[in-house]
Each structure stands twice: as structure tokens, then as C-alpha cells.
UniProtKB/TrEMBL annotation:
Pfam families linked: Lactamase_B
Annotated source species: Bacillus cereus
Keyword annotations of the record: Metal-binding
Segments forming domain Metallo-beta-lactamase: 12-199
Matching SMART domains: Lactamase_B (SM00849)
InterPro entries: Metallo-B-lactamas, Mito_Persulfide_Diox, POD-like_MBL-fold, RibonucZ/Hydroxyglut_hydro
Name of the protein this chain belongs to: MBL fold metallo-hydrolase
GO MF annotations in UniProt: metal ion binding; sulfur dioxygenase activity
Keyword check for Metal-binding: yes
GO biological process annotation, one example: hydrogen sulfide metabolic process
Length: 265
């Protein structure tokens, strides 16, 4: 298995290419608009990008998933969780699979299990990754999880953007409760799991994101305030207090990614 980390410092956005070297195929997680970087890297490694996956409908950058599907025939794996207000609206035009809690798919010998982790947004999902072509001992053991805007290094995603940036009233507290429940679900996973988030320090998707690019679940259990806060009411209060003002472009970007960013010629 090959894992390549891509980071846009201006947007504090992280995306990832996961490749199966045995089969020569790769998937991009939460791709940015600059899809050439993934295609060129894959070619250099003797791989073909055959898929892209999104953890949720993003509000802070323009997604490259639609272009990867239309220009390079990549299969899309996107969330079918949440209510009808936040479903992808452009998926009738290409290759896609709607995924939910419990969905499993593979890219080469790399298995992805979908976990519904709402709170930042209702449709948010995480991808638990297992490399199935290793020895018998590790064949069924996950190695990491792509958490999107759910878990960051030292923080978690903010639950108020649907209310403050998009204008859907009374959703912040609901999202905060969902985040509390999502953390309880993730806590039972092994401490050794690597955590691969979609943002780093400087992102407006959380209050206090760390500058370290990746983490482990055990580290977050020890140092992330959200994992150490065991009372739901305290958790909700702390999470909703002093969230920064969201950038004005978030609402526009959310809708562009929902209805499909324009494809460059």
C-alpha cells in the first residue's frame, strides 16, 4: 500500500492518494480542484487513479471529484447519509456509488469500510482502511481512518456551519450532539489506528487545529479535549463557544460542491 499526503497551505486542506502497488490502482480521498497533481504522481508510481471518495460536501474548497470522474473515468464514492437537503445533486452524469454506514468497497487489495460520523455535517462519513494483501496476522486489521472534518489533530470539526454559513436555523446544537455520539462510536476502535484528517492548523473548520499533519487515535484520546470530555452537556457547551466567524465564501462553495463544480475544458 502506498499513501501520499497532499497539502494546500493556503486552504489548510489535506487530501490523500492511496495506492495498491500490487494492482497498480489508486483512489484519492477528498481531492482538491488541482487534480493534475494526483494524476501525475500516480503515473510516476506506475498507477492509475480509478476512484475518488469524499467524506462530506465541503464548504471551504472546490472539490475535484467531479472532474476526476468526468475526465479520468474515476468511480466516485460519496455519502448517502443525512437528509435530502444535503444530497449530492450531480451524480446522474457519471460513475458513482452512494455509501452509508456499513458499506465496504475495495481499490485493489485496499479495503474501505464506511462509518457514519455526523456532526460537522449530517452526511459526514469516515473511511476505515485495511490493507488485505499483507500476512495472515494483519490481513483483517485496519491501519488507519480518513476522518475528513470530523476528527482533527487536537480538535474536532465545528457543528455550526450549516447555521452560521448556510443559514439553516437550529442545526448547531443538533450537530454538536451528533459529534459527541460520533466520538463515542470511534472510541472503541484500536488506539494504534492512524488518523488522517482533511485539514490542519489555520483552517476555519475548527477552533484549534494542530499543526501536526496526522495523528493516532490513542494520541487523540489522550490529548484531544473532545475525547476527554465525557459529559454531553459540557461537550456541547465547549464546542459551541467561541467558534470563529466562517468565511463568507463557505456558503457559495458548499452549494458548488453539492450541485457539481464546473468542469474545466
Amino acid at each position: 500500500m502506498l499513501l501520499k499526503y497532499f497539502y494546500d497551505e493556503k486552504l489548510a486542506h489535506a487530501s490523500y492518494l492511496v495506492g495498491c502497488q500490487k494492482e497498480g490502482v489508486a483512489i484519492v480521498i477528498d481531492p482538491s480542484r488541482y487534480i493534475e497533481q494526483y494524476i501525475e504522481f500516480a503515473k510516476k508510481e506506475g498507477m492509475e487513479v480509478i476512484a475518488a471518495a469524499e467524506t462530506h460536501i465541503h464548504a471551504d474548497f472546490l472539490s475535484g471529484s467531479r472532474e476526476l470522474s468526468n475526465l479520468y473515468h474515476a468511480n466516485l464514492y460519496v455519502s448517502d447519509e443525512g437528509d435530502c437537503d444535503w444530497k449530492y445533486q450531480y451524480l446522474n452524469e457519471g460513475r458513482y456509488k452512494l455509501v452509508r454506514e456499513g458499506t465496504e468497497f475495495k481499490v485493489g487489495h485496499i479495503k474501505f469500510n464506511v462509518i457514519h460520523t455526523p456532526g460537522h455535517t449530517p452526511e459526514s462519513i469516515s473511511f476505515l482502511v485495511t490493507h488485505t494483501s499483507q500476512n495472515n496476522y494483519t490481513n483483517d486489521k485496519p491501519i488507519g481512518i480518513f476522518t475528513g472534518d470530523f476528527i482533527f489533530v487536537g480538535d474536532i470539526g465545528r457543528p455550526d456551519l450549516l447555521e452560521t454559513a448556510v443559514g439553516i436555523k437550529d442545526t448547531a446544537k443538533i450537530g454538536a450532539k451528533q459529534l459527541f455520539d460520533s466520538i463515542q462510536k470511534i472510541k472503541i476502535l484500536p488506539d494504534y489506528l492512524q488518523i488522517w484528517p482533511s485539514h490542519g492548523a489555520g483552517s476555519a473548520c475548527g477552533k484549534a487545529l494542530g499543526a501536526i499533519p496526522t495523528s493516532t487515535l490513542g494520541y487523540e484520546k489522550m490529548f484531544n479535549w473532545a475525547f476527554r470530555c465525557n459529559e454531553e452537556s459540557d461537550f456541547i457547551s465547549t464546542l459551541l463557544t467561541a467558534q470563529p466567524e466562517p468565511p463568507k465564501y463557505f456558503s457559495l462553495m458548499k452549494n458548488l460542491n453539492k450541485y457539481g463544480p464546473p468542469i474545466r475544458k
